Amino acid sequence: MAAVREKQAGAVRRFLNMNVPVAKTASSEPVWKVLVYDRAGQDVISPLLNVRELRELGVTLHLLLHSERDAIPDVPAVYLVAPTSENVERICQDLRAHLYDSYHFNFLSAVPRGQLEEMAGAALQAGAVNRVTKVFDQHLDFVCLEDDLFVLRARHSASFHELNRANARDSDIAVATDAVADSLFCFFVTLGTVPIVRCPRGNAAEMVAEKLDKRLRENLRDARSSLFSSTSSSSDGPSSTQLSFQRPLLFLADRAVDLANPLHHSWTYQALVHDTMDLRLNRVTLPEGGPGRAEAPSARARSRARTAYDLGQNDRFWQQHKFSLFPEVADAIQQELDSYRAQEEDVKRLKGSLGFDGEDDTTMGLISDNSARLTSAVSSLPDLLEKKRLIDIHTNLATALLEQIKARKLDLYFECEEKIMAKACLEKPISEIVEDPEAGKAEDKMRLFIIYYLSNLYIPEAELEQLDQSLRLAGCDPAPFRYIRRWKSLSQKAAAPSTCGGGGTSTIGMFSRLVNTGSQFVMEGVKNLVLKKHKLPITYLLDNLMEMKNGPETENFRYFDPKLIHGNEPNISRAKTPFQEAVVMVVGGGTYTEYQNVVEYGRSKPGRRVVYGCSDLVTSEQFLAQLARLGADA
């Protein structure tokens, strides 16, 4: 299974080159052009190509479709937009205004015939038919953040709240699941392979599986126009998967299988940054001077300039340590800083050693040797400057995280939640943490309480009432717990909990006990917590599916093979050998902690590869807000 990020980037480069394969020779001059995109197109391109790479592809200007744009009559324009009625209407306005010399229209997904006719009519009325050069369905309607991580553009309509709200109509659920299925179809078209689909019954994931299966079947029915033939790959040639005998597994999971994980306090670098800061599309934004403050910012603080850092593929430190525990990241930053200072001192010593006089052979030989060393040092200066830039970024980021950890006592919450889920003894009762006015924000306390509630099959009513009262006194909104309590009651009636979490009602054994050791890197007052490898519920289910285990957790999962002529019933798996490649798609929102757990599981098996996707990457605060809205509607 080729890296999907590489495949999508290749497709983007191709359409930016007027849908012609990009020339490999460095001497070839690009066609200079204007790039016009909507917000969805911007989200797709942003994690893949930076401004310098766009310039190398001939993009001199990139503009939002619905912004005020001046006419540039002698320049071609390349569009990347979603096929919505608003976007098509604005495109028609551009045609009537004769903004550009020629138009290359690229849509993120298949454009309906009615919208094509509307565009054709506008071009005919404006006399701009000869200016419309190409119209393409690019099938790029998903956002690829890493080689093994993607999110869907339909994330807002397919949130946990939207799929589970009490007043949701059948038509609303149909629209949301249609959007997820369409984006997944684009994902597999870009990847160039047809998956075997497995999913649980009776939830939104099953609806998505049925619709995706239908879309794939309809496309495969006519081999001459199929998007999965070797000649219709979105990259510059047939993909490696098209020549492979084994197809990947698509595991469609519903967020309800594990409601504890999105609320759990994190302790790894990437998950901590996402949970405590503004991380979106591999770009983290934090305020100047006090990025990690837990208190509500004052008007003066809000007005201060905000600093943004790109944490993508080009950030070597981020790629190496994003899955590391925070204390390990702090140590790694210190080691990088020491290495940089040693290199800097070496350059300074070389500079001083060239300042002596003398004309004997020995002196001239020393000068020659030192000159060679200095030349080598100067040639490595760009790498040294890049190392310094990354050190500055991650020092600032780690400092901001440390402020958040200390202000909100995140290490205390993380340790307590780990022990709750591992059924270990707590140092102090939950009520004491909840009633402590200095122990984090109200949201932190509610998250801890919900995890405690989900991880215990039975809690005495008197204890629940006491905790509920303590939470209210601490300023917590009771709505999230109201929904979780109703949801757990219904889940327990529907089915007995399983060993992997039983529909999310039990997360026992997901984490191991913690070991507290000494701390470094200005970590006074913060525990250095060590975490052992574990499997989250979704990873546990994935393991069963990839290994073809007929356990009670997955025996009733539905099976879809779009390549089968006579459908998928009876519902028996046709695949007999274990899968080596899999795509996990969580409908209703995913987390960086879950992404890390799934990917590390794949890496632990020789020759195995797993890609993680979700309708959106939600922070704990965002997920708690969704639960609050569901509880308020109850």
Task: Give the key terms.
634 residues, alpha/beta, Rossmann fold, 4 domains, 7-stranded mixed sheet, 5-stranded parallel sheet, 17 strands, 45% helix, 14% strand, globular
Polypeptide structure, described:
- With 634 residues, the chain is α/β, with parallel strands linked by helices.
- The chain folds into 4 domains: 4-139, Rossmann fold, CATH 3.40.50; 144-258 and 536-633, Rossmann fold (3-Layer(aba) Sandwich), CATH 3.40.50.1910; 282-404, no CATH class; 409-534, Serine Threonine Protein Phosphatase 5, Tetratricopeptide repeat.
- Helix content is 45%, strand content 14%.
- The protein contains 22 helices and 17 strands.
- Strands 6-7-17-16-9-8-15 form a 7-stranded mixed beta sheet, sandwiched between helices. A 5-stranded parallel beta sheet has the order 2-1-3-4-5. A 3-stranded antiparallel beta sheet has the order 10-11-12.
- A hairpin with a 2-residue loop joins strand 10 and strand 11 (283-287).
- Helix 7 (170-191) packs across helix 8 (204-221), helix 12 (326-353) packs antiparallel against helix 13 and helix 15 (410-421) packs parallel to helix 17.
- It is globular.
Characterize the biggest β-sheet: 7 strands, mixed
Question: What is the number of beta strands?
Answer: 17
Q: Which percent range describes the beta-strand content?
A: 5-15%
Multimeric status of the protein: single chain
Low-confidence spans: pLDDT under 50, at least 5 residues? 230-244, 290-304, 496-523
| CATH topology-level fold name of the largest domain | Rossmann fold
CATH architecture descriptor text of the largest domain: 3-Layer(aba) Sandwich
Helix content range = 40-55%
Strand order of the largest sheet: 6-7-17-16-9-8-15
Number of domains: 4
Helix count, per DSSP? Answer: 22
- How big is the Rg? 28 Å
Shape: globular
Class of secondary structure makeup: alpha/beta
Determine the CATH superfamily of the largest domain.
Sec1/Munc18 (SM) protein, domain 2
CATH class of the largest domain: Alpha Beta
Return the average pLDDT rounded to an integer.
82
For the terminal residues, how far apart are their CA atoms? 44 Å
